[in-house]
Amino acid sequence: MTQPILELDTLRMVYNTDPGILARLTGRADPPVIAADDVTLKLHPGQTLAVVGESGSGKTTAGRIATLQERPTAGRVLFEGRDVTGLTGAALKAFRAKVQMIFQNPYDALNPRMTVGQSLAEPLTLHRLVPRTGLRAAVLEMLEAVELRPAASFADAFPSELSGGQLQRIAIARALIIKPRVVIADEPVSMLDVSIRSGVMNLMRGLQRDTGVTYLYITHDLSVARYMADRIAVMYLGAVLEEGPVETLVTGAAHPYTRLLIRAAPEHRAGKTRRTRIRLPGDAASQAGLPSGCRFHPRCPLAQPVCRETAPALAPVGAGQVAACHFAEEVGRHGLAVPA
């Protein structure tokens, strides 16, 4: 396989909590929040890696670190094989021209006081990619590419005049107009009406075919990940529990958590889907004060004493597939029917 274009290498992200007045008086401060714990993810050129997990899994933290909006407590971000973790100034600006982000909420992603044309022209001006005389043509071309027609009408509109689906297409256009190598897409369709989600997903796939852009696609919905991605990484409480090629992982998941996600996810097809949220037995532990041993054992239907005592490492279980489970081989063969 080719060298990764973007790699998160053994990232650790720890947030120290504000103790508050009561904690200061009693001397009982909350433990730090571990949002990422030894996370390694590799994005290969022209492909999509989907990161899947419940709220609090650390997937959005991984995306923010990938764009250097946040700097990790430990670990590295590599772009085209070069460590970019500590970039500042002009070098950081150049990096962000190559690694862009699409945010979950299209209503917050655009300045309400700027027209669509002005919002799309702004990154071109910021990075000095197009002369002022060519801005209008570049904006109209990008609006055509995201299927907003007539392009001139949309260019002169304000965000308040457009629907959520149209705004998300504009957010996608704004990320892609400077021709980045990588786009981090954080739940880009989760706030859209069910009826228009597939159209936006198909648009993103088509743009990838046309431009060769690489996606890190963050989602809570494994069925969306299956439709969009080449590979899936499953995160839970800040750690990657399983990763592998899409069909290998979906048909032969080797971690109980992944198996439960598959059960919870609706089927997604190009023309139809429905919104869902992952709902699994029990409550997820907090990222502050993780359980001993395997972090998933309090909710795992197959948990054994070893799971409470020893944290399993990510280990190969098949071609290009890794899982962090003491019983990964058995789960891969028999699923959740493995006797506890």
UniProtKB/TrEMBL annotation:
Similarity remark: Belongs to the ABC transporter superfamily.
Record keywords, A-Z: ATP-binding, Nucleotide-binding, Transport
CC per GO annotation: plasma membrane
Topology of this chain in the membrane: Peripheral membrane protein
Keyword Zinc-finger: no
Organism (species): Pseudoponticoccus marisrubri
One Pfam family, short name: oligo_HPY
Domain named ABC transporter: residues: 6-262
Protein name as it appears in the record: Oligopeptide ABC transporter ATP-binding protein
A Gene Ontology molecular function term of the record: ATP binding
Claim: Transport is one of the keywords in the record: yes
Compartments where located: Cell inner membrane
InterPro entries documented for this protein: AAA+_ATPase, ABC_transp_ATP-bind, ABC_transporter-like_ATP-bd, ABC_transporter-like_CS, Oligopep_ABC_C, P-loop_NTPase
GO biological process, one term: peptide transport
Entries under PANTHER family matching the protein: D,D-DIPEPTIDE TRANSPORT ATP-BINDING PROTEIN DDPF-RELATED (PTHR43776:SF7), TRANSPORT ATP-BINDING PROTEIN (PTHR43776)
Subcellular location, principal: membrane
